[in-house]
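Example record used in the benchmark description.
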Amino acid sequence: MWEILDTCLELSKARDYVEQAGLRDLLDDIEAPMTLLAPTNDAFEQLEQSPGGSELLADDEQLRDLMERHILQGRVRSGELFADEELETFGGDVLAVDLENETIEDATVEAPDLEEGNGVVHAIDLVLLP
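Model output (structure tokens):
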């Protein structure tokens, strides 16, 4: 999965923040299938420019918690993302899923089912704040 983050320019900020949060090894572990809801660069730029956004992203503990909200255990393809009204994250949070509008916490999946290695990446248009 790391290769997707490493080669997709529109997900370069997601790659950088995953690495800063210390989660690269988790997403690169072939024995641990994972799914990443990866905010696009535009999504991260919106957060960076919002009040308190830069501080949140600069705090290692808060950043790790934030990025864990974007990781689902197992390979979850787009058809499965919208099968239930909730998704449990790797960090233990529960994300609300709008089945009718096909959004996750108001985020829209812009590029679904990017598969490589141990997992699936779905590019989303918002950072999933707690």
